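Task 17 of the worksheet. Students: predict the tertiary structure of the chain below and write it out as structure tokens. Keep your answer in the requested format; marks are given for formatting as well as content.
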Amino acid sequence: MTCSVCLQPRNIFLHGPDQQVKIGDFGLACADIIQNTDWANGNGKRTSTHTSRVGTCLYASPEQLEGSEYDAKSDMYSLGVILLELFQPFGTEMERAHVLTGLRTGQIPESLSKRCPVQAKYIQYLTRKNSSQRPSAVQLLQSELFQNSGNVNLTLQMKILEQEKEIEELKKQLSLLSQGKGVKRVT
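Model answer:
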């Protein structure tokens, strides 16, 4: 089971026989829900207080990190980070942290912009510092990013092929190293 207040790739699930993608908790948890208290104020109206600094820093929106009020546009920021991770390969955790930190200042890897220009453009939109400049979920679904699902599928298929080539190359290197040390060959 995943942490209920953290947004990380482990909060992305494949569900059902068709392996439909489901995204778990984005971290917009409310203190009232966490504390299991009454949501109504004296007027009988629902109130809730967002928790501050909830979630994983690399995925949290600027307004969350600042302790300011936030809304669904904060989720859009987190989605932008996830999209970057889907389309940008990382060699190390340090590289991943560096790229995701750079995203806060609008830096998108040049290799991503060249390989996936539409996705890079929307990652840039989704991770804007000012939440009012980020697209809503409806706007995103109506955008070219989702209107041409063939592009998304093709890009993901290309990424899989690149990763398979990299795995094969690593297996070859491992085999060469193991032959030199008398270790059984990995297939």
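Marker's comment: The beta strands are 12-15, 20-23. Confidence is low (pLDDT under 50) at residues 1-8, 27-42, 44-54.
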